[in-house]
Amino acid sequence: MEEVTIIGVDLAKNVFQVHGAAADGEVVFRKKLARPQFARFMSDHPACEVAMEACPSAHHWARELSAYGHSVRLIAPHYVKPVIKRQKNDAADAEAIAEAATRPTMRFVEPKTAEQQARAVAFRAREQIVKQRTEAINALRAHLFEFGHVAPEGVGYIPRLAKVVDDPGSGLPDLARDICRMVLEQIELLTSRLAAVSAKLAAASRAAAIPRQLQTMPGVGPITALAVETFAPPMDQFRRGRDFAAWLGLVPRQHSSGGKQRLGKTSKMGQRDIRRLLVTGAMAVVRWALRRGAPQNPWLERMLERKPPLVAAFALANKMARGIWAMLTHDEDYRDPVIACAA
């Protein structure tokens, strides 16, 4: 039997499909293992390269298999799909994972530590709470609108809605008033939970060195800086700042052919958490730059003369991503752009 050089694993909750292949690609074994059997099998198997799709449990198994001495490679699922032969099943998926991992130009996902995954849980929980609070606020606005009370969007107008609910002369029936008070209590509860999660993220950001360094850049706050440390791989994996911006999905979509370059809208084919936070921070910088009498960045000033604010914010977010790459690669704080002055 030939020596196994790579094992492709199709992960699942209870049943795992493994595909062992030799250096020349010849199939050595195909096995379907239960969860306990898979752990025992991989701990007893000689150290080799193990490839898996980057699914939610992949980072946990990457840490487990690395402790057994294996070299783990995680692959984005959309890079595996073109390698699957005809019918899709667990055995075909495991074989395709092993074959995709052997390609010399394949891109791999950096396994996350337990601390990174813990911070990712906090980010996901914060995002869910924000969505739930927004849903509750919009529901309250809709309920009151049915009785002729109109309020603008946003959490800042909750006190106005609360006054309408508590006002005996607002024309609300008792049943509707009681239900609206329950919605207000739900909004208050979600707001307190959001503040608690944000405080934990801010504390984690203050305790880490990289977020403190990134916060020297305008538009990058503690949440954005911590998101970069949580979700982004080591910056030495990117050759230049543009590659990091492309990884975030902040570059134009290409439709180039025949030597003619055609660029479209922003691709948004990347890490959505960091991208969304960078765009939000860039929009805050743009709003500040549009204020009368505020000192302005020459590059941003020229951009705002030609483009709408939102387009300028996306361009600034791209520039911020490149700056983050440069700051982390060269271990430097943010430096303001030098303004050329006429002699």
TrEMBL record:
InterPro entries: Transp_IS110-like_N, Transpos_IS110, Transposase_20. Residues 7-144 form the Transposase IS110-like N-terminal domain. Residues 213-289 form the Transposase IS116/IS110/IS902 C-terminal domain. It holds the Pfam family DEDD_Tnp_IS110. It comes from the Bacteria. PANTHER family: PUTATIVE TRANSPOSASE FOR IS117-RELATED (PTHR33055:SF3), TRANSPOSASE FOR INSERTION SEQUENCE ELEMENT IS1111A (PTHR33055). NCBIfam families: transpos_IS110 (NF033542). This is IS110 family transposase. It comes from Paracoccus spongiarum.
